[in-house]
């Protein structure tokens, strides 16, 4: 989520604020981008203090220059609940971008020279700051734009008041509580034939979510700071090597606990899931041992999904199992159904869902793990049928779950203890990653896979000693969803970036999007249910289709000097593919060394916001390939080698 608290005018009027000489301060930002354009050398200073569970969560700050290059990165350890960071800002016409990715567990205060133009881009729906009653900002609506001011109540700021500076016209927007997280309030602003400057006053204190649609979503502390935002084109340099790092993960989805209707087969075929994630409800299976047989066989035989993971749970979202007769009977029924599948695949089983979130303490989870692991191991036919034990299916890995005392419940720590105590019973390390909503922060997926590999260790071939399974992920956990995230091209960019970063080192075996289809309370699927027999792919599903069309088996070593462009190099026999995504809005000029041109059977395809795939031109000069990559676009460069 996004949080942002402006100490902005500190409750003072505009005149009083501008008359006070000194640095400009932005206070209690929790999620958002601050664009900074200096006309003389300046320093931006960021300070932070804990907001909630900071001691359980690492965080990152990023500073990009006017061409999108990484000018500074600050990794904040969980132990650094409070701290500071300073970066120099060189004068220039293009803006730096200071990124404070949400969901953040700290409150960030930013300070810079009053002569540096600063524009804040808040999150949409998610809260981006914590503010004081009466704080003010300014925004501009260009001539002819149909702008909309929107906001969401997060328990703090309860109303937005906008006043047009030119004539004093006012609009008020009450922010009301809603049952569904993704519901919010909005008001249309009048359309004019000249540019309009508006003063925004925040009424109430605490968490705030406010944003603009139909115009630039940018806010300043003074009207004079409302200058046009400039971002120069970027340059991406790639160097491809022949070295194979490992295998790409199987890309899958969380599958429903019912037999899917035939009308859904076409969209599932388009997604081409290579892996599946299931829940298995022990209270249902203990009474109906064959309840799952039909749909599990269908997914294996009809859709070819031979790698899956099942989390044992109870219906009605009961996640904390107990070692009782019902749970034991449910597990026995699942094992029998898995043996009946004929040993065609690998079937991981996890005991309980996100135990570090749902169990009181580690000992409570350890007890049921050991009990159920003995039950699985007691029959050698289970292993012959492909049954493997995964643990702990934690809520997040490096950072803690969204729970009190999260520092005692980090997935990495629980996994480390369980490996030390019961390593011989464990075949795989599984975890879920949530709340990494920022496109620039998706690189933490690569870090989490690397640290998972460090935890389980590598064998003589450089492969993880236990399979690594990122078996559930999405931008948000539960139903804390934004339609700007889930229903748009943003989800396509996010998923492509997560796939590329997770696969980058060839260490991960499975990566699953959660979930396959929208549900009324959880509309976070890859496909939309429009009726009993009508299904369609959402933008992220169409992006997944594009990704799978170009997905190969092996990961090649690739050097990439860009920050806004993620790229994965893959190989299959004579096939080669570079799969990439430009997450930024600026055009990137891409140069590739290591692939000799002209390429044999070479092809460059783009996938953009229109959800369509199209051919794009390539240039070959002195043996180097180059192409122009538009902003917010996926690409696939494919060719053959002899």
Overview of the molecule:
The protein has 642 residues and is an alpha+beta fold. It has three domains: 14-231, no CATH class; 235-239 and 557-640, Sandwich (Immunoglobulin-like); 249-550, Alpha-Beta Barrel (TIM Barrel). It is 19% helix and 37% strand. The chain is built from 13 helices and 37 strands. The strands form seven sheets. Strands 34-33-37-31-30-29-18-32-36-35 form a ten-stranded mixed beta sheet. Strands 19-20-21-22-23-24-25-26 form an eight-stranded parallel β-barrel, surrounded by five helices. A five-stranded antiparallel beta sheet has the order 5-4-7-2-9, with no helix packed on it. Strand 29 and strand 30 form a beta hairpin. The longest helix is centred in the middle third of the chain and has 16 residues, at 362-377. The protein is globular and about 80 Å long. The two termini are 49 Å apart.
Strands of the biggest beta sheet: in what spatial order? Answer: 34-33-37-31-30-29-18-32-36-35
Could you tell me the strand content as a percent range?
Answer: 35-45%
Give the biggest beta sheet.
Answer: 10 strands, mixed
Tertiary shape: globular
CA radius of gyration is 26 Å
- Name of the level-1 CATH class of the largest domain: Alpha Beta
**CATH architecture label name of the largest domain:** Alpha-Beta Barrel
């Amino acid at each position: 989520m996004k949080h942002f608290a402006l100490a902005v005018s500190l409750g003072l009027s505009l005149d009083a604020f501008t008359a006070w000489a000194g640095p400009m301060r932005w206070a209690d930002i929790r999620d958002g981008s601050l664009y900074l354009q200096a006309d003389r050398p300046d320093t931006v200073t960021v300070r932070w203090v804990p907001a909630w569970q900071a001691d359980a969560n690492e965080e990152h700050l990023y500073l990009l220059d006017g061409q999108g290059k990484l000018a500074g990165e600050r990794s904040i350890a969980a132990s650094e609940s409070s701290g500071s960071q300073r970066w120099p800002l060189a004068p220039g016409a293009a803006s730096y971008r200071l990124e404070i990715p949400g969901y953040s567990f700290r409150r960030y205060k930013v300070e810079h020279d009053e002569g540096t133009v600063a524009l804040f881009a808040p999150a949409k729906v998610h809260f981006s700051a914590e503010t004081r009653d009466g704080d003010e900002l300014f925004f501009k609506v260009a001539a002819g734009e149909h702008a909309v001011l929107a906001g969401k109540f997060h328990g703090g700021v309860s109303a937005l008041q906008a006043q047009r500076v030119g004539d004093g016209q006012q609009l008020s927007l009450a922010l009301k509580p809603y049952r569904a997280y993704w519901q919010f309030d909005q008001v249309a602003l009048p359309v004019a034939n000249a540019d309009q400057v508006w003063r925004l006053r925040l009424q109430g204190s605490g968490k705030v979510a406010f944003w603009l649609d139909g115009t630039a979503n940018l806010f300043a502390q003074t009207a004079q700071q409302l200058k046009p935002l400039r971002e120069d084109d970027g340059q991406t340099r790639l160097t491809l090597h022949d070295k194979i790092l490992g295998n790409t993960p199987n890309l899958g989805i969380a599958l429903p606990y019912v037999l899917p209707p035939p009308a859904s087969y076409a969209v599932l075929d388009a997604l081409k899931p290579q892996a599946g994630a299931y829940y298995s409800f022990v209270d249902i299976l203990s009474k109906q041992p064959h309840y799952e047989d039909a749909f599990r066989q269908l997914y294996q035989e009809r859709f070819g999904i031979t790698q899956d993971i099942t989390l044992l749970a109870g219906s009605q979202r009961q996640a904390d199992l107990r070692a009782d007769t019902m749970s034991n009977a449910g597990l026995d029924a699942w094992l029998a159904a898995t043996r009946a599948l004929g040993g065609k695949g690998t079937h991981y089983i996890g005991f309980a869902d996100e135990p570090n979130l749902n169990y009181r303490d580690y000992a409570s989870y350890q007890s049921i793990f050991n009990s159920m692991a003995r039950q699985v191991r007691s029959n050698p036919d289970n292993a012959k049928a492909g049954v493997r034990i995964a643990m702990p299916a934690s809520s997040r890995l490096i950072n803690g779950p969204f729970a009190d005392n999260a520092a005692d419940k980090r997935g990495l720590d629980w996994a480390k203890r369980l490996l030390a105590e019961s390593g011989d019973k464990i075949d795989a390390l599984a975890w879920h990653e949530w709340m990494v909503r920022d496109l620039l922060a998706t690189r933490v997926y690569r870090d989490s896979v690397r640290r998972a590999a460090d935890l389980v260790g590598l064998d003589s071939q450089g492969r993880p000693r236990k399979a690594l399974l990122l078996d559930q992920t999405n931008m948000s956990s539960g139903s804390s969803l934004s339609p700007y995230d889930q229903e748009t091209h943003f989800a396509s960019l996010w998923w492509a970036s997560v796939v590329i970063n997770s696969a980058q080192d060839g260490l991960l075996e499975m990566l699953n999007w959660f979930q396959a289809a929208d549900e009324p309370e959880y509309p976070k699927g890859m496909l939309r249910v429009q009726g009993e027999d009508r299904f369609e792919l959402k933008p992220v599903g169409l992006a997944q289709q594009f990704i799978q069309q170009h997905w190969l088996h092996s990961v090649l070593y690739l050097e990439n000097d860009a920050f806004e462009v993620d790229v994965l190099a893959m190989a299959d026999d004579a096939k080669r593919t570079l799969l990439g995504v430009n997450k930024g809005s600026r055009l990137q000029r891409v140069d590739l060394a290591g692939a000799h041109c002209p390429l044999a059977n070479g092809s460059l395809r783009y996938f953009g916001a229109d959800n369509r795939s199209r051919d794009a031109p390539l240039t070959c000069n002195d043996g180097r390939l180059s192409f122009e990559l538009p902003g917010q676009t996926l690409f696939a460069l494919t060719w053959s080698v002899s």
